[in-house]
Every structure is written in structure tokens, then in C-alpha cells.
Amino acid sequence: MRIDVCCPQRSNIRMKSFKLFLLCLIPFANSASAEAKPQTIVFVLAEREYKTAETVPAFYEKHLKPLGFAAKYVTAPPSGPERDNLKGLDTVLKDADLVFLSVRRRAPKAEQLKAIQKYIADGKPLVGIRTASHPFDIRKGNSPKGHAQWKTFDPDVLGGSYNGHHGKQKTHWKIEEAAKDHVILKGVSMESQLTGGSLYRSAPLGKSTTALATGTAEGIETSQPVAWTNKPKDGNRIFYTSLGHVSDFENEHFVKMLTNSVLWATNTKAPCK
Q1: pTM of the entire structure?
Q2: Which of 80, 125, 184, 251 has the highest CB neighbour number within 10 Å of its CB?
Q3: What are phi and psi of 214, to 5 degrees?
């Protein structure tokens, strides 16, 4: 009769090999987990002229969420004592991979503004539309007690020189010939596009900017930059466009440019389609 005897030494060797195999798997598991974590966009929306509290979330749901981005929102009411309170901003910025800014003339609480300044100083990316060229400058009067302003946000971060806008003349925009091969303009038509908003006066741009699109208003000879990138001293990837009227979100070429800007700012490769 045959009796199988278990060899303790061989068993120990097999167990050690198995444990070593499991340890080897841990880095791959951690890597896969890290890759699966979506990048978070913090949308800061505090303006009432262009209804971006409605258009931007709809844009995210349709065009950015399918690409794997997650979203967090910071908002403030259009008027009243809480209009300058970007509640929770200083907390959510700690986990932000991108800030998407649509704010007009608010004076956030001092700790909230410090959080924004730290985010920029850390070299992190930002995408701004329309009124983001004058987000933290209330223009008249002093900040409420405990609040602060950043009057030079436009030249400091965006690289622009916002100084008002033209009237209600019909306005068109088109991409710059010299910038047509920029990744943000991939799929954007070279043809002139109509916008529902007035033309912002944003010139001159800073030396660290790259102009992507220009706008013209009927009856006005001087054109204005309407979309550009900037690389300020902290090395951030910054995109700004003075477009962002409600009707712009119905224009496939504006939507394409804005989607591409988010991918570019986060250094994310678009999925194959």
C-alpha cells in the first residue's frame, strides 16, 4: 500500500513563492486603481448674465462626463448677503485636477481667495470662460468684511487685458490661421462663427499667451482675441475664451474647442472614436 507523505520543506517553499507572487501583484493593483480614479473638475459658477449655472453643467453631462471626468460644483446666489461666498471652495480645491471658472465680479471670503491663489501658485490648470476675465474685482466699493479681491487676476493668470466690451453689434469669431494645428482647435471649423454675445476688449495679450481665435464686431474695425492659452510664471496650463453666451453652447465648434481645452489643460488624451 502506497502512502503519500507531505514534505514540510517543499510546502514551505511553495508557500513563500505564493506570498512573493501576491506581493508582486500589489503594485499592479495599486496602479490600476490609480488609473481608474477619474480626474475631478471643480466648476466655480457665480454669474447671472449668461446662465452658466445651467449651460455649464449641461455641457459637462453631455461632453465631459462620458470622457471619464468627475465634477464638483461651487456656486453663489446672484444677489444678497451670500453672493460673495463661494462656499466650500477652499475645501474642494484640495482635490481638484482642474478649475473651470465662470464668475463675475465677486469678492470671496479671504480664505477662499487664498485657496484659489495657492491652487494657481501650485501650477495647476484652469479653464475660464466669458466673465472669468473679471471674476474677483467688484469694481466699485470695498470688499465686505472678511472678504478679498484679486483685481489683477486677468493679467496675472489668464494673460489678458479685459477693459470692457463693445455694444450689441453682431459678432463673429474664427480661429487663427497660425494656430489651426493646435490640439485645442482639432475638429474646429476654419469658417467664421456667429456668437450671441458682445465682443470683449481683451487686447493686448501677455507675452506668455498663444492666440487661438479672434472676434470682430460689425462696424468695429479693430478685432479682439477671443480664445487663447497662457503659461504664467508658475507653469500652469491656462485656457480662456471670452465666448460663453447661451447660444455658444449650441454651436458645435465652440463646444468642440471647449471640450478640447479641458483635455489639453488636464493633459488628457481623448479616447478613440
Answers
A1: 0.86
A2: 184
A3: -130, 145
